[in-house]
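Hi! If you just cloned this repository, the fastest way to understand the data is to look at a raw example. We've pasted two of them here, unedited. The first protein comes first, obviously.
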Amino acid sequence: MRLRLTAEAVSLDTVLSEAGLRPIGACPLFRLVETDNAQALFETLAARAILTRPFIENPRWLRFGLPADENAFVRLKEALVHG
């Protein structure tokens, strides 16, 4: 289980990196990114039924959870690349 989570976290890091997002915080299940367009990105992803967590105390932060499966990784990547 731990090895799978590590591999999935690396995959999420790759997807985020390819979209120009760099995690500033991480734990096995989540990645925190800081971006100037966090609110717009939150809305774009939510419109595609991809939920992230914005932070009221820092509107430049957005937290991503590990996608549930390979299909969810593909959906996230497409949403980040094509908006």
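Ok, and the second one:
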Amino acid sequence: SDGQKKKVLIAVSLSKPAHLFVWDEPLNYIDVISRIQIEEIIREAKPTLIFVEHDKRFVENIINKIIQL
């Protein structure tokens, strides 16, 4: 499914030793439980993220600084 593919792509990108991630709508098609797990991983890893996301709750849960265009 599209959700499973997205989860794999997010897991692979977060497993890399990068400090900057550029994502476009990373949570499309992902179930609620997986979204929560992804939020926890991001909060622990504290990477720099540049992303487009319409899920305001997700954004508010993981960011410490936001720049809106």
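That's it. A detail worth noticing about the second one: The longest strand covers residues 20-24.
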